[in-house]
Amino acid sequence: MHAVGVLEAGLCKYVLISYGHSGRWGEGMLRMLLGRNGDDAVFGHFGASAGYAMAARRAMHEFNTGPETWEKIAVGQRKWANLNPRAMMYDRKMTTADYYSSPWVVEPFRLADNCLVADGGRACIVTTVERARDLRHPVVTIMGLGMHSPSADLAGSRYMAGPTGARAAGKAALDMAGIGLDAVDACEIYDCFTYTVEITLQDYGFFRPGEGRDWFAGGTIEPGGRMPVNTSGGLLSEAYQMGLTPLTEGVMQLMGRCGDRQLGPKTNNKTPEIILCSDNGGILQSHACYILRKG
Question: Per the residue annotation, which of 52, 204, 240, 290 is the catalytic one?
Answer without folding.
Answer: 240
